[in-house]
Every structure is written in C-alpha cells, then in structure tokens.
Design goal:
Layout lengths: L2 H19 L5 E5 L3 H16 L4 E5 L4 H10 L3 E5 L6 H7 L5 E5 L10 H10 L3 E4 L12 H12 L3 H8 L1 H6 L17 E4 L16 E6 L2 E5 L8 H4 L4
Parallel strand pairs: 1-2, 2-3, 3-4, 4-5
Antiparallel strand pairs: 6-7, 7-8
Amino acid sequence: MGAETALRWVCGEFLPKIGRRRLAQFADVALENDSERQCFARRFLEAAAEARFPCKIHCGPDAARQAAELAIDCPNVTSVDHLDEITPELAGALAKTRAIATLLACYGPRPHVSTETARALIEAGVPIALASNFNPQCTPTLNMQTIIAMACLQFGLTPAEAITAATINGAHAAGCGSRAGSLEQGKAADLVVLNISDYRELAGHFGTNLVHLTMKRGLFIYKEGAVAPLSAETLQPSC
C-alpha cells in the first residue's frame, strides 16, 4: 500500500470509524521537515476535524515552524508538542488559536527549548505545558518535580510559570482541564503535599523526592514513611 492510498484509507475510513465508536480522545500527527509529509499532515488534520477529533501535532526534528504554521491554519489543533523553536511573530499568531505549546524540559543530552523561545511564547500569551517525554532511550524520567526544576534552570521560567505549565495547562493540553489541574470546587481532589516551605523552593531541588503526602480523588494513597535502620533478621530472605 502506497502512502497516498494509506492516507485516503485513514482519512476516509479509519478516522470516521474510530470517531463513531469513540475509541480515541485525540488524533495525533507527527510532523517531519518534509514537504510531502506536511501536505499529508494537513489532509489528516482536516479529516480529523470532519470526524470531530481535537488534534495534536507532534513536532519532529527541525519542524517547529511548520508545526506552528499548521496549528495556526487548523482550528481543531489543541496542542503542539515538542515545540522547540519559534519566532516572536509566529508566537503572536499562535496565541490567537486554542493551541497549547507543550515543552520538554528533559530531552536527550541538550536543552530542548531555548530561553528565548519559552519567553517568546509566554510574552505572546501562548499557554505552555510541561511534559517529561518519558522514554527509556532518551528521557528515562517520570519525575515532574525534576521537570519543573529543569524548566526553571533551562528555559528561564519562574517557579510559578513552571508549576502552572505542569498542572492546569498540562490538564488542558490533555483535555481534562475542567476536572483536574487546579484546586477548585467540582474538580477531582488530586493533591501532592511536598516537604518544602515555599513553592519557589521547587526550582532549587533537583532529583530529590519531596513528596510527603499524595491524595487521589479525595483519598490519601501515599504517606512518607520514617527512615529507620532495619535489623539483619528483617533483611533475611524467607525460605
């Protein structure tokens, strides 16, 4: 099956069927720095809009500008993920859409986003979200405390901006901002209590587990235990 035939099948049969059966919440397209694939991506997004899917654009290497332009042209795009470079002019245009820019604070051996890019997005009014990009090969971390600290160190975000990006903006990027991501009446009581005296201290703790208590939907599911020595008998394996 050639690329054109596959695309026609995806747009004409697959997406409508998935939409009717409500088997997916988003339609996601990976955008590469290739003119033919960008044309395919645009057609995919148009078909997804007809099937009433909110869409995400997953930026490939060196395709940030094209991804931003595509999000500006396609009103059903809710987030542009892996966005690593953007001009102030494009940021201003992106701010007029509903898209959220998802930034990766931990991605391979180098910073994924420059300070200038992050600041251009914020100053233009583009909501930004933070993600870990968990991947065993290049980003083996699930620790959002680390992501917040790295966003402050690498992107120049303030702790307040980083926390907002990791919570309420991330919830909106995932399509659940009406029920999660902030402390409001009617939302799920998902809380984390940290061992710090001020939220601004998050930027100065790197790779440390600060969690004291965790609540999920109003129920405590984790509590920090006491650190105490164990006897040799306790550590013996059972037969």
